[in-house]
Amino acid sequence: ALSMGLVAKVSAGLYKVSSLWTIILFTALYGYFIGTIMPAESAASSVYAGDWGPPDRHFFYTPAELYAAISQWSAEGRAAYIQFRLSLDIVWAVAYSGWLATITSVCLRQAFPPGDRRRLLNVICIVPGLLDLSENFLGFTLVANVEQPIYFLAWLTAFATASKWSILVFAHFVM
Predict the structure, then answer these.
(1) Which letter, b or e, does each residue of 134-167 get, where b requires 16 or more Cβ atoms within 10 Å of its Cβ?
(2) Do residues 137 and 155 lie in contact, with contact meaning Cβ atoms separated by under 8 Å?
(3) Which distant-in-sequence residues (6+ apart) come within 8 Å of 17 by Cβ?
């Protein structure tokens, strides 16, 4: 009951902030990231991360694959990875989650009457962003401690990544 109460409160909050204006705002932010920030980061990360790239570009990986890749990164590459995850990647998670949640909330508001439980589906749109933030925290912890592998955290990171991508696809279907 407590968790459903929390879901209902988050859902109501999303409905409260979702409007044509917030859709425009999040679409502009999302578009800016897609068009400028993420391509620049992709190019920058290819320098230190090579063909395998950063872990969050994969659907799933094992700790062995992760450590094989990140152990090849230079100290500067690891610092760049951590810096991006602690700065613009946080805004990126907010941008795409906000974009999904505001559009979905406006559409669900039109599709279902107040009180209909299907209106709670808007909450699923913020879950990938929360998993992305968790993945970032876990990822930069692993990268910062690459000399001392933490396999339990590596498995959690892989699970967060796979969950993020799976729920992100589902959230797009809901939208």
Answers:
(1) bbbebbbbbbeebeebbeebbebbbebbbbbbeb
(2) no
(3) 102
* H-assigned helices in the chain: 2-17, 20-32, 38-49, 63-70, 75-85, 88-111, 127-144, 151-174
What is the DSSP secondary structure assignment for residue 125, as one 8-state letter?
A: G
**Distance separating alpha carbons of residues 26 and 92, to the nearest angstrom:** 10
Expressed in angstroms, the distance from the first to the final Cα of the chain is 26
Give the model confidence (pLDDT) of 23-51 as tens digits: 999 999 999 999 999 999 999 999 999 98
* Cβ–Cβ < 8 Å for 80, 48: yes
- Provide the CA 95 distance to its chain's centre, in angstroms: 9
Question: Is this structure's pTM higher than 0.85?
Answer: yes
In angstroms and rounded to an integer, the radius of gyration of the C-alpha atoms of the chain is 18
CB-CB contact of 101 with 122 (8 Å): yes
Tokens encoding 154: 């590596």
Output the CA–CA distances (angstroms, integers) from residue 155 to 44, 66, 147, 159, 161, in the order listed.
26, 10, 17, 6, 10
Q: How far apart are CA 132 and CA 105, in angstroms?
A: 21
When pLDDT is cut at 50, 70 and 90, the band that residue 2 belongs to is low
